[in-house]
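so im writing up the methods section and need the IFNL3 protein record in one place, dumping it here so i stop losing it
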Amino acid sequence: MPPLAFIPLLALLLAASLAAPFPQHAPKKSCSLSKYQFPVPHELKAMHRMKAHFENIMLLSDRKCSTRLFHRKWSPAELSVPDRVMLAEAELDLATAMLGLPADPSFTETRQQPLAFLTQAREDLRGCMATEAPSHQPSGKLRHWLQKLQAAKETETAGCLEASAILHLFQVLNDLRCAALREQCT
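--- predicted struct ---
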């Protein structure tokens, strides 16, 4: 019979040897976009302030835009959840890229909070796509719109794309809200 001091050590070794054949997996990180269903009021105020500031700047400029990226014949509600996430991610990519362009110092200050919010939302969406639908292929509707977006990036001026992204910012936020909903959105 082993001395009493060795019994806890034997129990520990036995527990370790029994647990070894069963792999321990880290818990799967869940994808939660619920905070984007209803952005907090100070975020929305910052978006309104930035859009109004930009509209005042536009009144003084002569930006002409022929792109109609945000005029679609379909609604995000018609898309699957992974397609809605891809749509919102593409729109956020455009918006954050345009808000990251050099600008008038007063506009640079106005856009900091919205840019931080949109950047975080984009990163959260990317994380969700990576964990939930890493190999998802977009539907025909979305694929066509993504091609239209790519063509616009290659042919339109940065000023035109910036105006389009900022002037349709609340549509982007609505599409983000729609992506955050797991059930059908309206």
